[in-house]
Amino acid sequence: MTIQKVYDLIDARREQYLETLFTLLRQKSISTQKIGIEECANLLKGMMEEAGIHTKIIETEGHSVVYGEIIKDPNAFTLLLYGHYDVQPPDPIDEWISPPFIPIIRDNKIFARGSSDNKGQLMAHVLAIKTYLDVYGELPINVKFVFEGEEEQGSINLESFVSDNRELLKADLVYTSDGPSHQSGAPLIILGVRGLLYVELKATGANIDNHSGNKGNVVPNPVWKLFELLRTMRDEKGEILIEGFYDNVREPSNYEKELIKKLPFNREEVGKQIGYPSLDLDGETFYRKLTMEPTFNIAGIQSGYNGEGMKTIIPSTATLKMDIRLVVDQTPEEIFGKLCNHVKKHAPDIEVTKLGMFHPSRTLADLELINIIKNALEEVSGREAIIQPSMGGSLPDYVWTKILKAPSIIVPYANYDQANHSPNENLDVDYFFNGIKYTCSVINRLADQVNKGRMVATNQVNK
């Protein structure tokens, strides 16, 4: 038998596989509102068992993890597939063209909440296993599955779950399908994520709001306190002035720099897509800033009166929220400490609170595993795959690279314009079926290299 027989069976089952996905999409699973989570976990467990996967639900301090496995041989190569079955709230409902939990196909796209983020992408893995087993009767490698129910809440219990289950989850490669593909449509391999430190800074003036005329020049304005502090943190060129902020930033390797240079980039198109047509960066600079450099972003400021018309006051409090994206080898704890020291030095009466964090993560770009995955994707797509050393955003990728000590890659199966987290979230039908084929091809290629003795030693991952 050849892998083409697997692809042919996938094509023959298009209607069946679409209906399977639709069944999962109809089941609400809004983690932040605790709606339908348990029901969705049980539904997914049944679907995985029907596909031939040994599955169990493992409880956490929050929502359960749906864990599955097919073990060919305890000593065989092991691939761990990660995804999440929880979804974002559908609001605002009135902006949806069709109901968010009644999937429908328009213009060859599946419209529903969770269609691309992440039920469609995780279901591609499940259906790939089902198809492979139906054709071959067994898998050539071990495959494990971790589908969590809290990703849309920041994966708040995933770290403890992985820490508590290291032996159960032991794998040679972690493979995640989440997020959008590259805007060019070429298959995309992402080798890491930026970390995140989310903080709140609160300045206080008087105990109450005061009349800006009667008490002007007498009562301090906390907004100015924040502004004056911010001026000490960043210069006019955008460099961060907090002592030691850049100390542990790892410079990209020469190979990573070459990968960045190869990434497709259309300045006009990107500028239009992000609503900033005056974007003035070349592709290399764009991707370097997006993936290899930390950020220091003001996410929001709240103070005083912002309603219609006038209200002349000196506000009593001002609150600033910041998200700081980090790159390896920075840590959220380190940067939070340095931020607090800076505030203590320049504005000791301003209160700093840590609201959330993710560690950055990056897998070595020159692992043989990466080329194997690249060839597998190209076999299906007929296009050269793009390798991106890191994404700009943050995912809990560090639980695999730092706790499980396994290399980890992200291969998005969704279309670039998926509108995840927004009304009219969608998944291109062809992307869905290509995703099923991608997973089959990856399994086949990994097994082929293991059998030929060409696989590089496992667990080669950046610390």
From TrEMBL:
The molecular function GO annotations come to:
metal ion binding; peptidase activity
All copies of domain Peptidase M20 dimerisation, residue ranges = 192-349
The record's listing under NCBIfam families reads:
PRK06446.1, PRK09104.1
According to its UniProt entry, the protein's GO biological process terms are: proteolysis
Pfam families from the UniProt entry: M20_dimer, Peptidase_M20
Superkingdom in the source lineage: Bacteria
Protein name per its UniProtKB record: M20/M25/M40 family metallo-hydrolase
Report the source organism.
Answer: Cytobacillus depressus
Q: Which InterPro entries does the protein's record reference?
A: Cyt/Met_Dipeptidase, Peptidase_M20, Peptidase_M20_dimer
- The answer to whether keyword Lyase applies is no
Keywords recorded for this protein, A-Z: Hydrolase, Metal-binding, Protease
Asked whether the keyword Metal-binding is assigned, the reply is yes
